Amino acid sequence: MSHGYATYGDDPEFTQEYEVPDVADPTRRDLDELFAAVDGLREADDRLGQDVADLTERLESGSAQGQQDRLDQLGRQLERLQQQVRVLERAVRVSDGVPQVNLDDVGTETRALAAEAARWDDLHKELVTKEQRARYAEEIAHLDAVRAALSRCDADLREVIGVLAATDRSSRARGDAESSLRALTTRRRTLLDEEIPAATSAADQARLALREADAVEARVVPQLERAERAWHDLQVRLRTRITDALGSNALLPTWFGHALGVAPPSGTSGDAWIRTAASVLAYRVTFGVTDQALPLGPPAGEGADTTERRWTWRARLESELDDLAL
User: Region Disordered: which residues (predicted)?
Assistant: First the structure.
């Protein structure tokens, strides 16, 4: 409408200079798409949740095994969808510039705890095992056994000599006694010259080894106890660090999301999840892993001794992560 004077809308130069673009800002468009994807996943999550609830009700009313299998499958699908929702929400928060928490930055005191806890394996290797102690005890008992054998041999010899003294040379009993005398004499000589000296030496070495083992145990056990306390305190600290990060608005590291998702699963598996998460972080702190993509860092290189603690611990953690089935 014209009122007799030029308006901004009537000014072609103004219109050209301040024309509103038809295409929205790319960043805003990306955010809108992410929010739409989140909304879509939430709707799918709600539908799956309703399906699970319906099947649960039917199962409680006496449904067949097939419905239980279907319920388990829907439960797994629901869990995966929830994880996808959290991943998309993370992407939205990244786009919005939400800060990311550095779980690896635990401070010197926590790193000292990790170093103390890491001594447990090497300390434990210094201890004599129960099996080795049992072998030492067998060596000591063997000496008693051969000495007892010598005593029986001497008793048998006395009995044979008595038979020889009481029988005629032509009697059959005397002939048997003479044969026994030769065998017992040989046996006694073997015991005195070979078996008892060898058993005595082995028993002496076993007693010495047990005394040394007792001395090592007296020295090492208190250190093992300190290492165990350090491991317990380390786990408590790291679990608290992770749960605090989950409860904050900060983003979790990329490596954490790759290994464990962005939040614990629902139900009883949540306990296993937080234990594994704390152990993964303990592994990173202990061995100085800083890789932001690989939760456990690069795998063992060619020629590495895979029996070393680092790699055996890594294998256990990989198995635990697989069991979480995230």
Answer: 1-25
